């Protein structure tokens, strides 16, 4: 398109001169850069305002303000004034008092004002060598009062341009005399209405068109082409039309064939590309009460909304700064100036096209996405949430003295290189650090951008702040990633290309750091302020990011019981240091006397606990009584077994012994006595993980089995230890293996009744609230959420004094209510029959809808080693799960509800060290699910691995390390719910949800350590050589984990003094198992706290001819207790998230 004339608005006259051919693009950029550079020192000293007044009214208004000038004649109804900031704000107030529009223009200087007089000489001198040409397209200049002036676009002109008023109204009126189509070249139409007002006022008698090129929050290509076509159709081209006769056109010899094209209709409206620097797409307002807002965009890997790239270990991610800028931009668009309780929940993977949705109401805002290919599945992942603050946009930020901070030169680190060490590659925006000043508690950093920021954009500065904030603590080598922000204010954008970041570290712990951050123009007040920006530390061993599985159904397994085939091999090839052949046996517990006699006949002489090679603990098979409930039984038996383990572990290498446990009927769980023994299945897996050197196994006999008659099979098993549960039925020993859930589903997808209510215990915890959302997606309209901690009265829900966790719960409940769901949040101890019965009685009395479905998600963790378990700690953990499930089982018997879901854990199956009580409680839920299923009830226990960043897994790094050790990982919330929905379609009582192949044996089965291949054949080496090689290899492994040179690692120095923590211990254990070739105890480093003592201990394990030396035992007795206390205390934590 060839314009007939061009007009430039203020600085736009530079672009007009380039288009007209008077300047080259390079010359135009030079003029713009020179003007911007000269004006930069004046930033913050002036401003401009758009007024709904004509020129006469404006001149009268500013009479008493000699430093304020009429800077722009915009239209007959609009003018722009320029001058000192305070006077501009005063005039805005006066105009608004007249009920007329007045607003600040986003600029921090006062062009077209006497403030420019001092800059004109330098403008003339720096552009003196400019050589403009005669324009090839007419230019109607806005610089001069006489718009017919034909300017020479030299240095004098540009000095005048920055000082004179902009005569835009007069230029438009002049052009309207012989032109009718006006096109505004801009990213969003700002002057289109002013153009039409001017043309209508001129009364030329011509029909005009005023149109833009692009429009904010729309698809650029579609908008541009549509506007281009509008201009063409308004003035169709004149095409020559020759007279008759016309030449004949040959016909086409069509060959007709039928072609049927089948198209797949999409259920989703096409989404626009996100706006620059954000993930915001097209904005839609939803007419609800209160109003809601939706922004939807399509994110494509080859068209990201920023210029750079950002990868973590090769996986393309959307940086946290872009997510944060998205939330800020949406809040600003809605008129808010602050956000609180910002949470970064999941990274946004950019490895495939994704649909992005940002949803806001008058309380909160959230960002979610789904792979574009799976848009119809509604498997959305929530990435970030925040609460909108009532602070209006543009209001004053808290004065923390940021503008008084100064930046001093110091050695400047290479920020990109520091992050590259951790696998972070690239930056989304271009910025650099030009000054670096460490302080006692933080940093003052100068940041320089290659150009001034676009209007309203703070994305590059946010990116710099998020990156630099992670470097506020240089004492920790781990990578810090943003986890959340307590409060964030944002005022006017920083327009200058140079800014200061002021960072104060306010807290530091083993999990990360907390930093206060301010972003300000150099020497100016803070434009952005972040209070309590929390960073979470990632260890080097935390692994690489993994995008969600496209088919999370592959995570769903059931347990298949298969005949044990490795008994002979286990007997013929015992592990180093294990017992071989019949040994003295001590039978402890129920019905011990007959069993002792029959085992003695089989060659196992009876012995006291202190002298026995095999300890056989027989669980009590009597039903519960009023004096001893199932919880009481669990507490007592756990204490008894813990005492046995403690005794055996304390004797260490002096004694070879194996602990066995016998249960009856737990496999089927059809009797109350079998159900109460079931917790031992979970406890057994943890003992096996913590103390593989002394674990024998757990055998489940049929319910009511006579122990004397079972003696032969027990005698055969004692010499063949097993980490997995063994089930003896009809002379066959069964062992578990994971099997895929396949076949034809027996149930339709879950659909809740709109006239029923659904109960979620632990419903106010992180996972419980997600489950509430999940039920709402399936039609639930009435939810009862219980927890031990009551919410404050609704009248107090808006108080600023509420902590972040409480605000998040309240926000989640309100979000459910905005979807039309009635939420009843009740403080109830689910393990107390009286509390639950009182709740149900009250609901019946009030005529509430009946409860037709149960999700039992209540739970508490308190990680302790089995040797450290106390009765109080065990009771605390098992109470909500065991007592709670008993109460619910009685209140909602089989057949009374549509579903009964028990959220358990894979801890009992996998054997996670430190989770003995928790695994025991979850094994009880598995057994209850089997019992109810046999009664015909739709009951399922879901054995989850950790949910990434949620619930108990949010801080469970020990669990993550163990999952890695077993070749697994945690799962995301979308993966968890996809797996749940899939499993629910099948008739399974116990679903194991874990990312491992279904063909594998259950971790912990006999032979599960077969993949361990020692670095050397220890059995063929002399004991002294074994010890030397072990010491050398252990020193290498431990030094690498501690990041020390091997020569600096003293073999006799305790690990605790070297800074060893529990996560390092788990990683060292994993490497040592591969090196030594046997499974090792989780407490190995605690019990043998130096390289030398550990090497001696392992020498005795792999080459038993070498006896433990007296000096090792002396060292152990002197230091083991303190090492255990100092190290394992670091992983011991108490959490009650599910119950809150």
UniProtKB/TrEMBL annotation:
Keywords: Multifunctional enzyme, NADP, Phosphopantetheine, Phosphoprotein, Transferase. Pfam families: Acyl_transf_1 (PF00698), KR (PF08659), PKS_DH_N (PF21089), PP-binding (PF00550), PS-DH (PF14765). The keyword NADP applies. Signal peptide: none annotated. Residues 407-544 are annotated as: C-terminal hotdog fold. It comes from the Bacteria. GO terms for biological process: fatty acid biosynthetic process. Residues 1025-1102 form the Carrier domain. GO terms for molecular function: fatty acid synthase activity; phosphopantetheine binding. Residues 277-544 form the PKS/mFAS DH domain. Its cofactor is pantetheine 4'-phosphate. Transmembrane segments: none annotated. InterPro entries: Ac_transferase_dom_sf (IPR001227), ACP-like_sf (IPR036736), Acyl_transferase_dom (IPR014043), Acyl_Trfase/lysoPLipase (IPR016035), KR_dom (IPR057326), Malonyl_transacylase_ACP-bd (IPR016036), NAD(P)-bd_dom_sf (IPR036291), PKS_dehydratase_sf (IPR042104). The keyword NADP applies. PANTHER family: FATTY ACID SYNTHASE, SI:DKEY-61P9.11. This is Short chain dehydrogenase family protein.
């Amino acid at each position: 398109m060839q314009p007939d004339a061009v007009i430039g608005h203020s600085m736009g006259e530079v672009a007009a001169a380039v288009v007209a051919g008077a300047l080259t693009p390079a010359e135009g950029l030079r003029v713009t850069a020179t003007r911007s550079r000269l004006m930069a020192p004046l930033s913050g000293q002036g401003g401009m305002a758009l007024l709904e007044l004509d020129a006469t009214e404006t001149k009268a208004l500013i009479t008493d303000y000699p430093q304020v000038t009429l800077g722009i004649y915009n239209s007959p109804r609009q003018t722009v004034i320029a001058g000192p900031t305070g006077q501009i704000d005063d005039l805005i107030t006066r105009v608004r008092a007249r009920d007329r529009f007045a607003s600040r223009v986003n600029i921090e200087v006062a062009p077209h004002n006497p403030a420019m007089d001092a800059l004109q000489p330098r403008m003339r001198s720096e552009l003196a060598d400019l050589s403009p040409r005669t324009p090839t397209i007419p230019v109607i200049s806005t610089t001069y009062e006489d718009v017919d002036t034909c300017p020479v676009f030299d240095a004098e002109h540009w000095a005048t341009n920055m000082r004179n008023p902009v005569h835009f109204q007069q230029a438009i009126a002049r052009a309207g005399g012989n032109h009718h189509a006006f096109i505004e070249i801009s990213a969003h139409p700002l002057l289109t209405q002013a153009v039409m007002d001017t043309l209508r006022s001129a009364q030329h008698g011509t029909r005009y068109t005023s149109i833009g090129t692009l429009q904010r929050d729309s698809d650029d290509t579609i908008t541009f082409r549509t506007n281009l076509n509008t201009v063409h159709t308004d003035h169709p081209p004149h095409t020559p039309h020759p007279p008759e006769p016309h030449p004949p056109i040959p016909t086409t010899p069509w060959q007709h064939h039928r072609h049927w094209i089948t198209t797949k209709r999409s259920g989703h409206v096409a989404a626009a590309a996100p706006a620059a620097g954000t993930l915001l797409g097209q904005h839609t307002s939803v007419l609800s009460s209160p109003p809601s807002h939706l922004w939807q965009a399509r994110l494509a890997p080859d068209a990201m909304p920023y210029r750079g790239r950002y990868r973590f270990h090769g996986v393309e991610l959307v940086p946290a700064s872009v997510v944060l800028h998205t939330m800020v931009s949406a809040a600003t668009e809605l008129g808010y100036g602050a956000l609180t309780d910002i949470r970064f929940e999941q990274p946004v993977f950019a490895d495939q096209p994704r649909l992005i949705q940002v949803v806001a109401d008058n309380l909160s805002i959230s960002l979610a996405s789904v792979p574009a290919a799976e848009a119809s599945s509604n498997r959305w992942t929530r990435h970030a949430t925040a609460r909108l603050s009532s602070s209006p946009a543009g209001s004053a930020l808290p004065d923390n003295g940021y503008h008084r901070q100064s930046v001093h030169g110091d050695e400047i680190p290479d920020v990109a290189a520091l992050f590259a060490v951790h696998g972070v590659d690239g930056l989304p925006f271009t910025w650099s650090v030009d000054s670096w000043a460490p302080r006692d508690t933080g940093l003052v950093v100068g940041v320089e951008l290659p150009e001034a920021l676009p209007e309203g954009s703070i994305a590059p500065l946010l990116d710099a702040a998020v990156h630099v904030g992670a470097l506020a603590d240089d004492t920790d080598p781990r990578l810090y990633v943003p986890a959340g922000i307590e409060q964030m204010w944002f005022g006017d954008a920083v327009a200058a290309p140079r800014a200061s970041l002021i960072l104060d570290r306010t807290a530091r712990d083993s999990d990360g750091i907390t930093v206060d951050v301010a972003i300000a123009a150099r020497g100016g007040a803070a434009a952005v302020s972040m209070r309590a920006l929390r960073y979470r530390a990632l260890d080097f061993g935390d692994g690489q990011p993994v995008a969600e599985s496209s088919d999370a159904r592959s995570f769903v397994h059931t347990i298949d019981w298969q005949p044990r085939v490795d008994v002979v091999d286990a007997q013929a090839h015992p592990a180093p240091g294990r017992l071989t052949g019949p040994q003295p046996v001590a039978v402890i517990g129920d019905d011990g006397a007959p069993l002792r006699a029959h085992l003695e006949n089989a060659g196992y002489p009876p012995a006291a606990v202190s002298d026995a090679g095999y300890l056989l603990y027989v669980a009590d098979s009597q039903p519960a009584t009023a004096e001893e409930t199932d919880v009481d039984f669990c507490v007592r038996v756990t204490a008894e077994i813990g005492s046995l383990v403690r005794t055996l572990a304390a004797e260490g290498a002096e004694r070879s012994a194996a602990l066995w446990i016998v249960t009856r009927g737990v496999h089927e769980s059809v009797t109350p006595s079998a159900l109460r023994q079931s917790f031992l299945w979970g406890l057994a897996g943890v003992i096996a993980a913590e103390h593989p050197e002394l674990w024998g196994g757990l055998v489940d006999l049929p319910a009511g089995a006579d122990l004397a008659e079972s003696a032969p099979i027990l005698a055969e098993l004692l010499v063949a230890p097993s980490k997995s549960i063994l089930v003896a039925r009809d002379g066959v020993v069964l062992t578990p293996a994971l099997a895929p859930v396949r076949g034809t589903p027996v149930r339709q997808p879950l659909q809740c009744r709109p006239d029923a209510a659904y109960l979620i215990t632990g419903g106010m915890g992180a996972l419980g609230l997600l489950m509430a959302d999940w039920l709402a997606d399936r039609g639930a309209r009435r939810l009862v959420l219980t927890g031990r901690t009551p919410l404050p009265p609704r009248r107090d829900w808006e108080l600023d004094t509420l902590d972040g966790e409480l605000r998040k719960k309240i926000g989640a409940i309100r979000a459910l209510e905005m979807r039309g769901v009635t939420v009843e949040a009740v403080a109830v101890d689910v393990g107390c029959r009286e509390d639950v019965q009182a709740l149900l009685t009250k609901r019946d009395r009030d005529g509430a809808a009946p409860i037709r479905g149960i999700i039992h998600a209540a739970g508490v963790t308190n990680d302790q080693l089995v040797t450290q378990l106390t009765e109080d700690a065990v009771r605390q953990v098992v109470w909500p799960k065991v007592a709670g499930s008993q109460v619910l089982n009685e209140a909602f018997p089989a057949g009374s509800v549509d579903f009964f879901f028990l959220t358990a854990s894979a801890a009992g199956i996998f054997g996670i060290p430190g989770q003995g009580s928790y695994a025991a409680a979850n094994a009880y839920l598995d057994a209850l699910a089997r019992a109810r299923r046999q009664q015909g009830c739709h009951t399922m226990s879901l054995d989850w691995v950790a949910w990434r960043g949620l619930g108990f897994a949010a801080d469970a790094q020990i669990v993550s390390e163990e999952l890695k050790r077993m070749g697994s990982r945690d799962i995301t919330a979308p993966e968890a719910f996809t797996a749940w929905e899939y499993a629910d379609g099948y008739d399974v009582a116990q679903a194991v949800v874990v990312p491992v192949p279904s063909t594998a044996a259950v971790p912990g089965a006999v032979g599960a350590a077969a993949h361990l291949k020692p670095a050397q054949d220890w059995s063929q080496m002399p004991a002294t050589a074994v010890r030397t090689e072990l010491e050398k290899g252990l020193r290498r492994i431990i030094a690498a984990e501690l990041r020390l040179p091997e020569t600096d690692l003293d073999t006799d120095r305790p690990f605790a003094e070297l800074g060893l923590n529990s996560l390092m211990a788990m990683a060292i254990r994993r490497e040592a198992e591969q090196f030594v070739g046997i499974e090792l105890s989780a407490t190995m480093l605690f019990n043998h706290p130096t390289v030398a003592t550990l090497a001696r201990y392992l020498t005795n394990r792999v080459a038993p001819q070498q006896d433990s030396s007296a000096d090792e035992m002396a060292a152990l007795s002197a230091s083991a207790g303190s090492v255990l206390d100092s190290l394992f205390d670091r992983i011991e934590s108490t959490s009650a998230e599910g119950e809150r």
